[in-house]
Every structure is written in C-alpha cells, then in structure tokens.
Amino acid sequence: MNKSKAAIVVSSIIEKIEMICGGLWTAFFVLGFFITITDESDDGVAFGIFVIVCIALGVYVFLCGRKRKKMRLLFKDYVAQLSVDTSGSIENIAGATGTSVDVVKKNLAFMIKKKFFTNARIDEVNNQLVLPSMAQRQQEQNYNAQASNVSTSAPQIEMTTCKYPNCGGMNKIAKGMVAECDFCGSPLQG
Predict the structure, then answer these.
(1) Number of domains in the chain
(2) How open is the CA angle 88-131-91, to the nearest 5 degrees?
C-alpha cells in the first residue's frame, strides 16, 4: 500500500471515529445539561459549567471529523483538476473549484500535512503545487523537446494516459513502462 493511499485510509478512519465519538459525547452531555437545568441543588452551577465545556469539546471533535471528510473529498476534486491541468497552478484549481486562492492554499497545506500528496510542496513564488514526479516529468519533456530540436532522427516515445482508480488522477506514462502516480505515488502500468 502506498503512502498516500494509506494516509487517506487512516484519515477516513479517524474521521469516522471523530464524528461518532464527538456526536455521542455531545449528545450525552446535552442530556446532562438538561438534567442540570432541572436540578435545584447548590452544585448545579458548577456542574452546568462543566457540562457546557464538555459539550463544546464534543462539538469540536465532531467538527474536526467533518473537516477531515471535506478535505478527503476535496482531494479527489483537486487530483481531477491536476490531471487536466498539470501545471499545478493554484489559481487554476481555485477557478475550477469555485473557491478563492487562499482557501485552496489552506486546503492544500492541510492535505500535504496529512500526507494526502506524497512529497508535495507549495511553491509560493510561482503560486503552484509542486509534485516531485510531475516536476521530473516536466524536466524530461523539456529535455526531450530540446533533444528533438537538435536531432530529428531520435525515436519518439509513445505515451499513454492512465487513470488511477484510487485517487482518480490522470497520468501520462510511456507505453509498456511502469511509473508512479503523480498524485498518490501508486505504481501504474503504461
């Protein structure tokens, strides 16, 4: 199992745990809050404050799970966009998803931190997401373009497009060769 797929699976499991535990925790303490309201003892105020803090903690954990789910779903959208536009431009991703550049940067930073994209980084100068395999492939294409200008007798490599089923990314690789997915690092057969 590759690193990106493992990170997404782990994040999905954590997401479900956070949402279930946060929801149950909140429900339990909301019930406790109603019991506290009906209680007429002197300890009711201190216990009420404790219950409100516990409710806030449960809501926070639940919302963390929702954020993970949102990021996991956005990851697939971003990979689909990056498959079409291999430049990695954050402006293009923002335009395609209908969000601002700052939101896309923040989301990409979260995804990189959680290892959804393997060995990726955000290039602040060029305002783009840099994936190592995409950068290497771009360098190879530039080299091949320069080499073809020098000598036209060099054989052309036939390329094929593969869609990886786990992340949905479209990858161009040489026919008959094995390469890694640009987005999640999984092996692909051309």
Answers:
(1) 2
(2) 20
